[in-house]
Amino acid sequence: MTAPTDRAPTDRYRPCLRPEVLVSDALLLGPRTVHLVKNPRSGKSYEVGVKEHFLMARMDGTRALDELGEQYAAEYGKRLGDANWQQLLAMLGTRGLLADGPAAPPAEEPPEPPRTLLRGTLPLVADADATAERLHRAVGFLLAAPFMVPLLLLITAMEVVAVARLGELVDGAVALFTNPVLLAGAAALLWFSTALHELAHGVVARRYGGQVAEIGLRWRLPVVIMYCTVDNYQYLHTRRDRIATAVAGAVMNLAVLLPFCAAWLFLPVDDATGDALAGLLLLGSAQALAMLVPLPPLDGYKIVAQLYGATALAASSREYVRLAVRRDPAAKAYPRRARTAYLTYTLGSFLVLAGILAAVVALLVHLLAT
């Protein structure tokens, strides 16, 4: 039955969303709660409110409009009129979201950004999603609890040792920077770690049903890094899946350091090698932990946004704090959950930045005192 989007809807029409349509969990956005909806065919994403989502979540082809209307009235105490249905079905139909409506045109390939010697991107594989799937088939078993729990315990132990012997690590890093050969080797290992960091995002995303859009190289000379784009990160099934995908990169960075930490602790090495290992442990840990700072576009920001259940968390926080400082009446329109999220995120971000600044100052004091 064709979707009645150009006339008053019939009560017995049974709307059904296309099975490929992606819908996110409820997310804070400013003072509102929204759901993100994506049409994979067109590549376009939309925001819908809680009430629209209530109806869309029940549009599986088994419920007629009158049944949906009764459920809506029971939930919100108000019946929808023909004009309301007409507006909703027209919106869904024109965006190509209804199974029996016209399909949205396929997404156009975005123009390739200009590539110059100084900056650009270069895809490394023709089918990034298939590459991530092959990698997952090869190493995905390592993501099971019998492997991950011991790994996380070892990483935690390594970082505890690093903090307890921080002075040695700093001295080793200083010595490392005076040895060009060992410094070049450490830099190569850290770059390799960043490549594995990106691939880890893709492999974990594939484990939870994500799609990897692109794997490649990005350069802003003198920096050259790998990147891995997860196309539907916001639509992974659960918040835990999304957090696991975001944290996977930092875990990989730290896992790479484990054999070098073991060599530093337990093998009889000469002073130069010991300094190099200590310096590598410090620089690698700093690299991994820096990615967990809760500021966009870092992985830590994505993790915190998921913990708060928010989208555009930083922008929403800035806007709310601006309104609150100015005592703007609009600030009172924010629900309590939103106010708490935006204030605690802002305060937490300042504390993290203050901690980083204090660590830098302490490092400089240590270096000047030696």
UniProtKB/TrEMBL annotation:
Provide the species name: Streptomyces niveus (Streptomyces spheroides)
Could you tell me what this protein is called?
M50 family metallopeptidase
UniProt keywords (A-Z) are:
Membrane, Transmembrane, Transmembrane helix
Q: Where are the transmembrane segments?
A: 141-166, 172-192, 243-265, 277-295, 342-369
Do you know which CDD domains this protein is assigned to? S2P-M50 (cd05709)
User: What superkingdom heads the lineage?
Assistant: Bacteria
